[in-house]
Amino acid sequence: MASIVKKGNDRYMVRVSWYDDFGKRKYSNKTFKTSAEAKHYALTAELNKNTTNLELSKMSFSDYFKDWFELYKQSKITSVTARKYHLIEKELSNAFGNKKISDITRREYQKFLNDYGKNHVTDSVREFNGKIRHCVKNAMYEGIIDKDFTFDVQITGNDDRKYSVEYLSLEEMSALTNEVISLLDYRYSTNYIILTGIMTGMRVDEIVALTWKDINFNFKTININKSWSFKMNEFKPTKNESSNRIIKVNDALLDVLKDLKNARCGKDNDLIFTTNNVIPSTVAINKALRRRLTSLGIIKRGFHFHSLRHSHVAFLIAQGIDLFAISKRLGHKKLSTTTDTYAYLVDEYQAKNDITMATKLDSLVNKNSAPIVHHSI
Questions:
Q1: Which CATH number fits domain 170-358: 1.10.274.10, 3.40.50.1860, 3.90.1150.10, 1.10.443.10?
Q2: What are phi and psi of 269, to 5 degrees?
Q3: By the 8 A CB rule, do 145 and 136 touch?
Q4: What is the per-residue pLDDT across 148-203, written as a single tens digit (0 to 9) for each?
Q5: Residue 189 to residues 70, 114, 178, 255, 277: CA-CA distances in angstroms?
Q6: Is the pTM of this model over 0.85?
Q7: What is the assigned CATH class of domain 78-161?
């Protein structure tokens, strides 16, 4: 809104207000000699603002979401996260068609969210709504809508759709580890990648992005500071800030990597896991993994490279490793991400702990001691 204030020196000051990208109100002032000049400037400023808002308010909900994403989000996020926004745009288009964002009601949006929740787990619906809500708040800041129709909506989901992650038993994990080690050949990288996945729980795009300078043989650590875009065939940032981490690794893996480095005369900036100077595709890596499992007679429907990450977690939980330490090792932003993803494994571990706790408490009692007798007075 533009306002005009008469100053003491027969001047007229026009103050124009607007909201920035973060919803914070901003002001600009300009002084004129005459009232007519000030009124003309104020009217022009408001017309310019209203023209922009009018054009935006005519956009369909999905088109506005797309425009907002491209303007404010696209340049800051990874291609994986960008795909989530594209899927939301498609959902909005399917549900609301050409309906303008300024015509969407809270009841309509709640129904849309309920329908989406029928085929998605609650956590996914919450994330889905969060991204849309951010966009809707932006529309309020721009003056396109008067009310936040996402306010206080109820999040519901179909948690029956939650899946149990596939993982290897201790015996299967040991068999796969030894099978892979027996087939190591410095000319081919897939078995080295599989072994690293077993021993570290790293994501495949983090593993193949490793260079020799990321391995500290003295401190026995791996520095995870980037990942690999299989689509663009180049480095990219890790999934998020918490994915940047330094993890401890075991001697067996370090010995294997040291031998590989010596065999290839590896230099600091050289990628570790290449075959003929090319990083193998995820298809090739998964095919190699399935061949190893088949040769061992291990049948796991839907098992793929990321399942090694789940197997790594299952192994650590079974060994009684603290969940907070596991979460940090995986690069999860929140402990709840770990506990939610591996809830059933945590439940199994908790059940074993309950038995152990009961046994330990029983050990406090001397079996040979006389029973405690309470005498009434």
A1: 1.10.443.10
A2: -90, 0
A3: yes
A4: 999 999 999 987 755 566 889 999 999 999 999 999 999 999 999 999 999 999 99
A5: 38, 47, 16, 16, 10
A6: no
A7: mainly alpha
